[in-house]
């Protein structure tokens, strides 16, 4: 993953996910990101973790509950329509999953950037309540 910051949209995997979502806007695609991470019983790869981080942040913006910079993604929100009622709870579970010891994104951010990353994850999680 090439990253240019610690934010949820500051890496190639997140950008790829958002491009995919822009090309085929559907809440089911967001749901799939969360369920794939939650269904992984082995070590959770970096791509999956980065996509959960971005999808959860995007959802928090779509719900109007966060100040996360979603760049030019607001047009996708309009195309998606109403957010399914159960999606925020699923996103919160997936955020917990990416913070587990068996998650590559959690491993990646261990060290100097961890405090900033985990603070953003917690902010997103709180916004989804």
From TrEMBL:
<protein>
    <submittedName>
        <fullName>DUF4259 domain-containing protein</fullName>
    </submittedName>
</protein>
<dbReference type="InterPro" id="IPR025355">
    <property type="entry name" value="DUF4259"/>
</dbReference>
<dbReference type="Pfam" id="PF14078">
    <property type="entry name" value="DUF4259"/>
</dbReference>
């Amino acid at each position: 993953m090439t990253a240019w910051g610690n934010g949820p949209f500051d890496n190639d995997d997140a950008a790829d996910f958002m491009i995919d979502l822009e090309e085929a806007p559907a809440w089911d695609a967001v749901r799939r990101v969360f369920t794939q991470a939650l269904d992984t019983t082995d070590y959770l790869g970096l791509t999956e973790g980065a996509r959960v981080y971005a999808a959860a942040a995007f959802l928090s913006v779509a719900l109007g509950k966060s100040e996360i910079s979603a760049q030019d993604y607001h047009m996708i929100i309009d195309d998606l329509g109403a957010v399914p009622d159960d999606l925020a709870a699923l996103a919160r579970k997936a955020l917990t999953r990416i913070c587990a010891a068996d998650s590559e994104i959690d491993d990646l951010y261990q060290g100097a950037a961890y405090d900033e990353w985990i603070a953003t994850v917690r902010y997103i999680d709180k916004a989804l309540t």
